[in-house]
Amino acid sequence: MAAERAEPEVPPGAVGRRVSCRGERATVRYVGPVPPTQGLWLGVEWDHPGRGKHDGSHDGVRFFTCRHPTGGSFLRPAAVSFGRDYPAAVQEAYRMDSAQVRRDGHAVDTQWGKLKDISLDRWTSVALNRSDVNGPGAAGAVRKTTPNVTTLSLSRTLLSCWDDVATISQQLEQLSQLDLSSNRLALPSDLSPHLHSFPRLRILNLNNCDLTWPQILEVAPLWPQLEVLGVEGNAIGELQRPEGVLQALQRLSLAGNPLLQDSVIGIAALPRLEMLNLSQTGLSELRFEDAAPGGHTSSFPALTTLHLDDNVISEWRVVDELAKLSGLVKLTCRRNRLVTSDGFASTARQLVIAKLGRLEALDGVDVSVCVCVCVCVCVCVCVCVRACVCACALTRCHGFHQISAKERNGAEFDYIKMFREEWLKAGGGGQPSSQFTCQHPRYLSLIDKHGDPEMGQRKPFILRNQLLQITFTFPDDPDRKSFDKKLPGSMQVLKVKALLRRLLKVHTADLTLSYTTPQVGIEYEINNDLKPLQFFSIADGDQVLVRWS
């Protein structure tokens, strides 16, 4: 580090302030000389530690402390920006100044083109994400600039403390949605001046803010009406019970946090929580010890939707624990380690459906979208500039595969067949062993619902003599046309093969059959020639896939 010419003045109270440098964010940890060089230096801790060079030491002397060994750097004041206040940031973001604002119908140049009316007091949404906004500015300046804002994005800014955020929010009396993701906000020493700063806030994003759960609970009294909270990608390990805070919360995303295995129970008493995202949290276990197998837990009384994607769940008893959640109707559990003996994902899906009797939707398709208070800017010529907000508090918008009655019926029948031998060894129709009932809490209720198919006690899903319209297709012979046939549900598979043998001139023993249903794109094997079609839950309109060797 060589001597430099005179540097610009550093603002007072710079330690703890946020700065930007070439697009990266950092927090000032030290202001002063660094011998043997001349002049003033800023010691900063980068948000992304790979950007730094050291841990706050130079030539064996410690000037400040970093949490990461390469999280620190020394910078000249001229190399950084301390940002600008809220009104200036709004003007910069929308490339205009107060002199440009017209109320006389004249067009005004903006970054989106010419607008006839861009009166700031008409805006309801403002996007200042990735800007250098550092605070509220002069007293009342925020209210004068954008008084009617309901949705505000302040992600990845230079805001450094909750006191400044509260001062901004206090002047936006209609504010209901706020994104503060990717900031580093110092906690207030005293909450009392800010207790009425967020009176209407319903949706809040604090993703990637390096927060712990106790820190979130400490500031949570500021948000008495909060319904949606995203705290993904933070430093949350243990989840302590919220006492007197977050009681209105309906949706919570903890995805991407290193949660301790048994700490999820800490938030189980939230009375209104309907959706919980625990994806990518390293979970392998979930236990509700207040309820016996097959019973109902008092935990998560309002929960209907749970996301468990990308964890390390490998034991089926975790699914049995989920069955204790009496309101759970939607579940995603993709990319875990739940496997069945045949290794097929379709069989694992069937097993989850059979074990969770109230489930209505399972897994689905990931749809990559903007989340929570993500702002896409729209332009309304002659009206105003506004921002459209998607508030979902998830890193992804999860599409679900609905579970049809047909799919559930087939899954439950297959589950009965899959574990029938184990059930018989455990006592069968008498009193199965406690070990079996613990491993298969729903099995006896499924026998009661459907009967034992192997003993001819099956309670058919369709009328025994109903004629089924079946389409026969030939996936390995694309030149052969499919055809429709009406067959009784009581017809044996062997007789169906005999019919196909006469039509195809193929030996019965060489034929292999499976079927799919239009509602669910899963192929089910027809693996017993002595059973009737109805045994496999084949219904009107299904396709039978015919293959031969």
- Strand order, largest beta sheet: 10-12-13-14-15-16-17-18-19-20-25
Unreliable parts: 97-108, 110-117, 365-397, 456-465
Gyration radius over CA: 31 Å
Which percent range fits the helix content? 10-25%
Q: Which structural class fits the helix and strand makeup? A: alpha/beta
Classify the beta-strand content into a percent band: 15-25%
Q: What is the number of E strands?
A: 30
Q: Termini distance?
A: 77 Å
**Can you tell me the overall shape?**
elongated
- Tally of separate helices: 11
Sheet with most strands: 11 strands, mixed
Name the average pLDDT.
85
Task: Tell me what you see in this structure.
- There is one protein chain.
- The protein has 549 residues and is α/β, with parallel strands linked by helices.
- Helix content is 17%, strand content 22%.
- A hairpin with an 8-residue loop joins strand 2 (24-32) and strand 3.
- Residues 97-108, 110-117, 365-397 and 456-465 have low confidence and may be disordered.
- An eleven-stranded mixed sheet has the order 10-12-13-14-15-16-17-18-19-20-25, with no helix packed on it. It has a five-stranded mixed sheet with strand order 27-26-30-28-29, covered by helices on one side.
Summarize, please.
The chain is α/β, with parallel strands linked by helices.
What topology does this entry show?
Blueprint: E1 18-21, E2 24-32, E3 41-46, E4 57-58, E5 61-62, E6 72-75, E7 84-85, H1 86-93, E8 108-110, E9 113-115, E10 125-127, E11 133-135, H2 141-145, E12 151-153, H3 162-170, E13 177-179, E14 203-205, H4 213-219, E15 228-230, E16 251-253, E17 275-277, E18 305-307, H5 317-322, E19 330-332, H6 345-355, E20 361-362, E21 366-367, E22 374-380, E23 384-390, E24 397-398, E25 401-402, H7 405-418, H8 420-425, H9 434-439, H10 443-450, E26 467-473, E27 483-488, H11 493-504, E28 511-517, E29 520-526, E30 543-548
Parallel strand pairs: 7-11, 10-12, 12-13, 13-14, 14-15, 15-16, 16-17, 17-18, 18-19, 19-20, 26-30
Antiparallel strand pairs: 1-2, 2-3, 3-6, 4-5, 8-9, 20-25, 21-24, 22-23, 26-27, 28-29, 28-30
